[in-house]
Design goal:
The complex is a heterodimer of chains A (190) and B (264).
Chain A: H1 5-27, H2 37-46, H3 48-65, H4 68-72, H5 74-89, H6 96-122, H7 130-139, H8 144-173, H9 176-179
Helix pairs in contact in A: 1-2, 1-3, 2-3, 2-5, 2-8, 3-5, 5-6, 6-8, 7-8
Chain B: H1 2-13, H2 22-25, H3 28-44, H4 47-63, H5 67-92, E1 99-100, E2 105-106, H6 108-134, H7 137-146, H8 151-180, H9 189-209, H10 211-220, H11 239-263
Antiparallel strand pairs in B: 1-2
Helix pairs in contact in B: 3-6, 3-11, 4-5, 4-6, 5-6, 7-8, 8-9
Organism (chain A): Kaistia soli DSM 19436
Transmembrane segments (chain A): 7-28, 40-62, 69-90, 96-122, 134-155
Keywords (chain A): Membrane, Transmembrane, Transmembrane helix
């Protein structure tokens, strides 16, 4: 599928939004990633394929210039964009509460894809905040896969709900002259 | 002059470090294939093999003048991972060989596994770091263009690479300006959550503000009129490098494939 020029430019800007969002979450020492705002925004405006590719490119570019570990999670970013786009097509980004619930739903498949990468490639750790929760769950008798899954799911639900809400706020405030070019956005209009 | 120094500053915040080594001069696709071969080797080698791979990569990085940056990044990334691996596999996961040391019980098998994973991730990370510290992204894009990558794909990768530096600088400028105005970025949860939209929204608005204009400019230049772009100053390539790449790809596939065949 060939994207039109406007969609391509939106996707490139979204990659930057993703990386800057992640950097700001890091500045503020928030226990959230906020590195998928652009991906979900593209998914709302241009659909699942554009959203998925935006996520994939974000992690590959991030890996190329700043943090090579990010590239390992490129499939997770792809899934976030695709699932958000499918939810948008189903009309689940029309209101703020639908967007928040959609974000929480996106967290489930993204965690399912992330867990094997974390467990089999990184031995169940990432060197980040979820490791503390995973360590606690291990200490109380859960298996490694369960501990990684539950700790990441908890953080992912909060992160993706906030991310999807921010993406919805941005999309709903964009000027009509801009959004009128994205036919897919009709699925998210009230 | 100002833009020149800005460009230099931008280059410094990438992991790329300028140099004159063989890896710097190699075609970016050759460096990319070396990285992929190292990653595939790290996936199948035992702990001793991945440790040798890490040491070899560090030695090469020192010889190419990117050692300081690579090793610093390796330590920053691997230290928390190493600590977490020791805690999780050495102390927390119950294994039959656990030895009780009073306050904690240590598993030698768990520590072995932690070391195996640590060395594997470190080898993969060093492979990636060798590539990103010696290959400028723009050279990689030129090499891809030369190989016939469609202009749309080139734009999607190249445009963020060019925009990230000014946007990172802008994010820092907004953060500093807001701190001067009294915004609390290090205080309570509530204060930091309040600060989030104040820092984030201007940057998102800025990134999206001139979409129309950029689309018009690109369309005006007919940037997708032809399926392939012509690269005027394409990175140097040679028959030797082409064959070297082919052999490395074949070795990478074999070293991943043979253990799989053996397994089944």
């Amino acid at each position: 599928m060939k994207f039109d020029t406007r969609t391509l430019i939106l996707m490139a800007a979204a990659v930057v939004i993703n990386i800057i969002g992640g950097q700001i979450a890091h500045f503020l020492k928030l226990p959230l990633y906020l590195d998928s705002i652009g991906t979900i925004l593209v998914a709302i405006l241009a659909g699942p394929l554009a959203g998925g590719i935006t996520g994939l490119v974000t992690n590959l570019v991030w890996g190329l210039i700043l943090n090579p570990v990010a590239a390992a999670f490129a499939p997770v970013a792809l899934v976030i964009g695709v699932v958000a786009g499918l939810l948008a097509r189903a009309g689940w980004f029309r209101t703020w509460w639908q967007a928040t619930i959609s974000g929480a739903i996106v967290a489930v498949p993204s965690t399912i894809v992330a867990v094997p990468i974390i467990v089999y490639m990184f031995g169940g750790v990432t060197g980040g905040g979820p490791d503390f929760a995973a360590a606690y769950l291990l200490a109380v008798g859960q298996s490694l896969v369960q501990s990684v899954a539950f700790s990441n799911l908890g953080i992912n639900i909060a992160d993706k709900a906030v991310t999807a809400l921010i993406a919805w706020i941005v999309a709903s405030r964009l000027p009509l002259r801009l959004t009128s070019n994205f036919g897919f956005f009709e699925h998210s209009r009230v | 002059m100002a833009s020149g120094s800005k460009q230099e500053a931008g280059k410094q915040s990438l992991l790329f470090t300028p140099g004159e080594s063989l890896l710097h001069k190699a075609n970016p696709l050759t460096s990319l294939v070396i990285m992929l071969w190292m990653i595939s080797a790290a996936a199948v080698l035992p702990t001793a093999g991945t440790a040798i791979l890490v040491l070899a990569a560090i030695t090469v990085s020192m010889a190419t003048g990117v050692g300081k940056r690579s090793v610093k990044r390796l330590l920053i990334t691997m230290t928390p991972i190493g600590v977490a691996l020791i805690v999780v596999h050495g102390l927390l996961i119950e294994r039959p060989d656990q030895t009780d040391l009073g306050l904690v019980a240590i598993s030698p098998d768990g520590l072995d596994y932690a070391l195996k994973v640590f060395m594997r991730v470190a080898a993969m990370l060093m492979a990636t770091l060798l590539f990103v510290t010696t290959t400028h992204p723009s050279e990689m894009l030129k090499a891809l263009d030369q190989r016939g990558v469609p202009p749309g794909v080139g734009y999607l990768v190249a445009s963020p690479l060019l925009l990230i530096e000014p946007f990172s600088d802008r994010a820092k400028a907004i953060r500093d300006a807001q701190r001067v105005r009294g915004l609390d970025l290090t205080g309570s949860w509530k204060a930091r959550i309040i600060a989030l939209p104040i820092l984030l929204m201007p940057l998102i608005t800025l990134a999206l503000s001139d979409l129309d204009q950029r689309a018009s400019i690109l369309s005006g230049r007919a940037f997708r009129a032809f399926p392939r772009r012509t690269v005027i100053n394409a990175p140097h390539d040679s028959t030797f490098q082409v064959w070297f790449r082919r052999i490395l790809v074949a070795v990478a596939v074999l070293q991943l494939g043979i253990p799989l065949l053996w397994h089944f």
